[in-house]
Design goal:
This is Membrane protein insertase YidC. It is a multi-pass membrane protein. One of its GO terms (biological process) is protein transport. Pfam families: 60KD_IMP. There is one protein chain. The chain is mainly α. The protein has a domain of about 200 residues. It is built from 11 helices and 2 strands; from the N terminus they run ααααααββααααα. Strands 1-2 form a two-stranded antiparallel sheet. A hairpin with a 3-residue loop joins β1 and β2. The longest helix is centred in the N-terminal third of the chain and has 32 residues.
Length: about 300
Amino acid sequence: FYFGPNHFKTLKALDKGRDEKWELHRLVYLGWPLIRWINQFITINVFDWLSGWGLSMGIVLLILTIMVKVVVYPATWKTYMSSAKMRVLKPKIDEINKKYPKQEDAMKKQQEVMGLYSQYGVSPMGGCLPMLLQFPILMALFMFVPSAIELRQQSFLWADDLSTYDAIITFPFHVPFLGNHLSLFCLLMTVTNILNTKYTMSMQDTGAQPQMAAMKWMMYLMPIMFLFVLNDYPSGLNYYYFVSTLISVGTMILLRKTTDETKLLAILEAKKKDPKQMKKTGFAARLEAMQKQQELLQQQRQNKK
């Protein structure tokens, strides 16, 4: 029997000098293999280092959040610049849409759009890879904070215990999917997520197409769904997401103000004129080849008729 804290390093130390390993540290769930590796060798060590300063756990989480944002900033910048390039090219995309208004010309329209991206050296998938690279780091914190026993009975601001929810309102009844309380950090996280979504959507013209309008409302619905999902989670986790989203909003505003889109368009125009920059990206080249093949098959079917 083991009677003691469910602390990763404490449990791992029990195996030192033993022939038969107990591996009790695996009782501390840190996520899937990659996520667990990040938490075991990076997150826990950084968290312990910050905790050693004698700061409150709320400040430790704040500093940890800032450090994470600094680490993922290159990917954030790459994603933003990819979005900015697509935005400055939108007038040219609109011209192509007007050129091919009919549904049967959708293949030609898509092919011309991809040709435009190739000419300007822009990849429509350019912002996806940086976002995917951030995912393991963000998930690592999602798995680590609820399992951190150091947060137990540690207060911060109005939260009496960062290891459990910070109920600002307790209902005399049970609300389906929400519970009998409302957590303030979770509510603040939801509000900042909605503001972040609103600001992000304001930088993108979703157009008048029904599917784009539906996607827009889905983007607003996601933060509301997270309110129901995370309301019972530790206040330390919701506090982390709240601060993280605030920093994200600030970063987007700063990038928007410091990015000269007129200059960016001029750079893209210069790339278009430079033959060395005319080489198609791998994704664009493959997609264009697939479109040509589909167009050829469609013509063959029409000829048979």
